Amino acid sequence: MAISRIPGSAVSTLSFTAILSDRAVNGRPMHTDLGVRRHKFEVSDLSFWYGDKQALFDINLDIPERSVVALIGPSGCGKSTFLRTLNRMNDMIDGTRHTGRIALDGEDVFGRGINLVGLRRRVGMVFQKSNPFPKSVFENVVYGPRVAGENNAARLDEICERCLRQAALWDEVKDRLDDSALELSGGQQQRLCIARALATDPEVLLMDEPASALDPKSTQRIEDLIFELKSAYTIVIVTHNMQQAARVSDLTAFFFQGELVEAGPTDELYTRPKVKQTEDYITGRFG
């Protein structure tokens, strides 16, 4: 893929400056110390194949702890594949293989002896379509701890309330804990799935377009929640909505045709991209 460079001057056609400025006004300032934060993930020379089809090409990306990293790019560019490599969800697909290294706190997630259950407990996943279990609200939240062997009723009650509060859902469902989760609205179901992911005490949350099927009000609540959670968790989010990436992320990575074209602090990438493909994508010239 030919990559052409553009001058370092600001891209005057971008409309994202106002969004970035509004973040501080709305209580969503972005981290400005990414360069000195410890890396939660270090991805080095990662390539990935589905059978004979190569989906990722030599990806190098450091993900700072307790930050929000947005992965953007057109459909089929590899961002969801990359997201799923971080907790090896792609292992569930026959015929996949990789080269390169993904280190979580310095340990290769593909290393010998890695405990996959433990890895996925540390690195939780929230999918594009909310997928509550056909169980009660309470049983959805405590599912992970129950599977891990937690049977103490008082402890399960505490986990349920804590995680629903973290997911900004407690006040809406505290009197409906025994009701079916399938009776909740779409936005509530997605926040329930976030609460369920939090119940296993993860260090990282992977979110694959968590608001794409939601109405604007529910989307705003998910975005508010993402910002609140980053004080305690590292969050990596795939989104097709570039305005959403500008609203919630500290660092943005632009993927195109399986390659990582450019990554950097969100305010810099949106207003002063270094690569022409990045400018063309975020200004709507393709994608």
Provide a descriptive summary of the structure in words.
There is one protein chain. With 287 residues, the protein is of the alpha/beta class. It is built from 12 helices and 10 strands. It has helices at residues 17-25, 79-85, 116-122, 137-141, 143-147, 153-166, 170-173, 186-198, 216-229, 242-248, 266-271, 276-282, and strands at 39-50, 53-64, 68-72, 96-104, 107-108, 123-126, 204-208, 234-238, 251-256, 259-265. The chain has a 6-stranded mixed sheet, with helices on both faces. A 4-stranded antiparallel sheet has the order 2-1-4-5, with helices on one face. The longest helix has 14 residues, at 153-166. Mean pLDDT is 91; it is low at 2-14.
The rounded distance between the terminal residues' Cα atoms is 16 Å
Estimated radius of gyration = 19 Å
Strand order of the largest sheet: 6-7-8-3-9-10
Structural class: alpha/beta
Number of strands: 10
Largest sheet: 6 strands, mixed
Order of helices and strands: HEEEHEEHEHHHHHEHEHEEHH
Q: Fraction of residues in helices?
A: 25-40%
Overall residue-averaged pLDDT value = 91
The percent range for strand residues is 15-25%
Q: Give the CA-based shape.
A: globular
**Uncertain runs:** 2-14
Number of separate helices: 12
